[in-house]
């Protein structure tokens, strides 16, 4: 859609005109704003023919021509208008747009040069708000400093004329162009309060909140199209969302609507080329791309858009090539350079990627993404790199010392299991970057802070992940996360990154469960309610479940449903059929067509899966009462105890009553509802399951065996219940069950290796297990890790480490016993060990001398 903001002035300006003309001009502007472009052209042409002098009629007519793609008519109107309004910078700004769209670069540049000359010669002549906005837009096109334009021009214009829509729209557009979504959101939200019937303002709201609030974006888009059903930019944004959700046919229909409005719309034809690319239609792609470039043969925005959308579908190599195509047409086109920088970073080509990010920042210091990336590079430079034949792992140095070796070992286990299963060979090494700061993870992954809820992301041969330190207070099994992400490496490689998000996520969650029964996702009361409440998404539209998720919970449900679908499809047709689907995706076949080819018709699968999911939901505690319950007070104000007499199997009621009794320390009484809950819901894997709660009652009553049995149930369901693992480890140490100490210590380290307690107990356990080198090595690893955590007893820790190193004949034992004595000079055990080491060294020296003595 043409850039209307520079010509649609406030009603206050229209008041300067005579009354009849003012009414007609306002009517014509309203037609343009509401998408009646033909009516606007007709009305403005009649006014011009009738001798109406105002420049506004020409501006409206030109914009209406641009909206429907009538470039030659727009140019003719411009040329005539400039003969009369020879000092107009608003006309020349439109002239730049027209000549650019026609591929007339020199003429477009000349328009900007004229604006600069006119303003420089008579700055006071162009000091009102509309002209200031035009100046600002022209200055940005001439590569002026964005911050200076914002502060010296746009801020002044808005202060002078806050009732002029352009003074809000122009800085909002600038913020969007620099990825400053917070500032854009503020400006457009304020503008929507002032101009509630303006479709362009609501479209600004939609764009500003697109990265962060799907519901607000959808509502703003709908508002835009209600006010202007022919708002091509909003229609294209809807098509963009549909493409992201794999709804290609619906997107195609929207593109057809845009092309009815403007048959030559280059962005619509760019999207059409993208659809052809996604469907492996090389001829169609070339035809649509040529139509997008019909008037402006060197338009870099065409390839930039195609490449950007391919990258959003994780097809980074193809996306990067389109950005290179864009830069071959215009080497200074910053959007393509910025996107290429991110593509290369995600492809693991970090040297060129970082270099391009710095080039973008040098050219545009206001670009938020470029600034974030350059700052992040400095942070990553301090990371330690761990490598083997298959992986490059970058971690914060201290964390690398603590659990870096474990990361490599886990990744190699995943490689051995999943590469064989899916028939994939790792030719290039996979890069894994683990961030102790969630903000750095988000910037590396998305270019901007945010991304709350994401634990890891895979781009193909690059994985980014949060370390346990990134989310203090939460517990997630980092081993499960890396297994999940490495599975993406395998499936993305199997398909050349040509797979929908739901299938990729579904297989990864499915493979988590296959690797470890406590990993992945399971049916929960919340998921049960969502399934039975109609929240399932049809299989053929499942990618939309991620894009249109109303809450973070709905995002998690999308992962869960995707894994259920994958499990359903594999159970129905076998893993071989799923591998054939992946192979066809690799060849370029559309996902629904690949599924229908190897598994069955989509409509049948959707029907059968829905029945399957409803059946699974119904099997969750089927004898329990899941009816609605107003918490925390039961109906009619009755006590929980009294209410439960009439509802003895109510799951929520029993849980609330048990918690009430536990809070009152009525331990024996609490066991009654908890035992009933366990009978009704024996596979409860929740964080506060009945097993966990009854373990607290048993502990208070010193019923240690019963406590341990309940905790073992928790551990059997959960991959990340740290409190249960810690308590089980303590109980095992008390009864000197050292293999159990090692097992539960290992479970804790898979969630948070940065806490000292498990390392201390692991070292202690190694002292009591059979005297094997492996046990001493395990203890030494644990003690070395403890030393990195500034233990309260460093002398004892150094001494214990020296003991185990001595048992392994490791010469580093002497250094650590000396460090123990440096901390505590009178440490008798350390003194004795040092004497022993010295005596052994002397004896070895004598023996070496005897062996060297000639006979």
The structure class reads mainly alpha
Uncertain runs: 1-20
Count of DSSP-assigned helices: 44
Rg to the nearest angstrom?
A: 34 Å
The main pleated sheet reads as: 5 strands, mixed
Biggest sheet strand line-up: 1-2-3-5-4
| End-to-end CA span | 100 Å
Mean pLDDT metric: 90
DSSP strand tally: 5
Work out the helicity level.
55-70%
Q: What characteristic shape results from the CA principal axes?
A: globular
The fraction of residues in strands falls at: under 5%
Describe the model.
The model is unreliable at 1-20 (pLDDT under 50). This protein has 44 helices and five strands. Helix 19 (316-329) runs antiparallel to helix 20 (334-347). It has 855 residues and is mainly alpha-helical.
List keywords for this structure.
Serine Threonine Protein Phosphatase 5, Tetratricopeptide repeat; 5-stranded mixed β-sheet; 44 helices; 855 residues; 3% strand; 5 strands; disordered N terminus; 69% helix; mainly alpha
